[in-house]
Amino acid sequence: MTTPTLTVLRPGLVDYREAWAEQQRLHEAVVSGDQPDTILLLEHPSVFTAGKRTEPADRPFDGTPVVDVDRGGKITWHGPGQLVGYPILKLADPIDVVAYVRRVEQMLIDVCASFGVAATRVEGRSGAWVAGDGTRPDRKIAAIGIRVARGVTLHGFALNADCDLGNFDRFVPCGIRDAGVTSLSAELGRDVTVAEALPVVERHLSTLF
């Protein structure tokens, strides 16, 4: 999808390092004005990525390789069944990174609501969460990790659709030890695929602006 002010690319399953190189290319083009704001919506083969605040104890217990990146936040997993979005957007002056993160959170909360999942914010923790209910802790359904360089955003969000949640048992997700991880499928008791989630996310992208 392309408009005069926004391009949405859906390249499918893309190796993390290839997607990172494409993000950098698009970032340069958006900074220079040669490319409109652009959003990549895709899946990755299984990969762990570590933001700048990752602690050694947060890393996979089994020695699985980790890609270190320059986004905020700590460590996370990406893989099949997870819809990953990389908005490459020029933010308005004065740059307000916290306000941008809140818009990303709101978009994810609205997407979850479209599926009938009540997601919310948790004080002091980024992302979209399903609140604990006395028997289960708060559990993250979508993660956020961003960077802003020269006024343009990089990295983005990851929404768990029908991914294997067992992957999150191999490390400490986002360095948080007292909460869980969930997915649209787990909350609804039915398969919600990335293909099903993709057009819903697209409909809510305007929230980012």
Structural features, described:
The chain contains four helices and eleven strands, in the order βαβββββαβββββαα. The relative contact order is 0.19. The chain is globular and about 50 Å long. The protein has helices at residues 16-32, 97-114, 184-188, 194-203; strands at residues 6-13, 37-43, 47-50, 66-68, 75-78, 82-88, 120-122, 125-130, 139-149, 152-160, 180-181. 24% of the residues lie in helices and 31% in strands. With 209 residues, the chain is of the alpha/beta class. The mean pLDDT is 91. The strands form two sheets. Strands 1, 2, 6, 7, 8, 9, 10 and 11 form an eight-stranded mixed sheet that branches. A three-stranded mixed sheet has the order 4-3-5, with no helix packed on it.
Which structural class best describes the helix and strand composition?
alpha/beta
Sheet with most strands: 8 strands, mixed
User: Given the C-alpha coordinates, what overall shape results?
Assistant: globular
From the alpha-carbon coordinates, what is the Rg to the nearest angstrom?
16 Å
Task: Please report the distance between the alpha carbons of the first and last residues.
Answer: 17 Å
SSE succession = EHEEEEEHEEEEEHH
Q: How many helices?
A: 4
Provide mean pLDDT, rounded: 91
Catalogue the unreliable spans: none
Beta-strand percent range:
25-35%
